[in-house]
Amino acid sequence: MAIEAYENLQVVRGTVQADGTRISDAKWGYKVTKTGTGKYTITFNNDFTESPSVVATLDGDDWNLLDNVHVTGATTERVTVRTGNSVGDVADRPFHFVAMG
Questions:
Q1: What's the pTM?
Q2: What angle do CA 19, 33, 79 make, to 5 degrees?
Q3: Burial track 49-70 (b if 16+ CB lie within 10 A, e otherwise)
Q4: For 65-88, what is each residue's pLDDT tens digit?
């Protein structure tokens, strides 16, 4: 089902724990591979027709406001998400994401 918009959009969304496991979402349209400390690859079950726009935010309230999450390398098939701590070091963190395109 597409969102009613100016274009036909595919949406994949989810929540990922710090260890790389998915938190129970309504429908899983993705797989997660934790490839290192604070580095996660999200692979979409159905490829997007073009590279999606992806946003991510940390999950929970146990983090310092300087802890962070970055989205890198979005392609039609996958996206890489990196998380870090308040002093700029790579660190495992839980996060939410939305990919749309």
A1: 0.88
A2: 115
A3: eeebebebebbeeebeeebbbe
A4: 899 999 998 999 999 999 999 999
**Domain annotation covers residue 2:** no
Does 3 reside within a domain? no
Q: Is residue 4 part of a domain?
A: no
Give the number of domains in the chain.
1
The single-letter DSSP state of residue 86 is T
Residue 69 is part of which domain span?
A: 11-100
Q: Which of 9, 3, 6 is nearest to 100 (CA)?
A: 9
| CA gap 38, 28 in Å, rounded | 21
Provide the H-helix boundaries in 6-87.
none
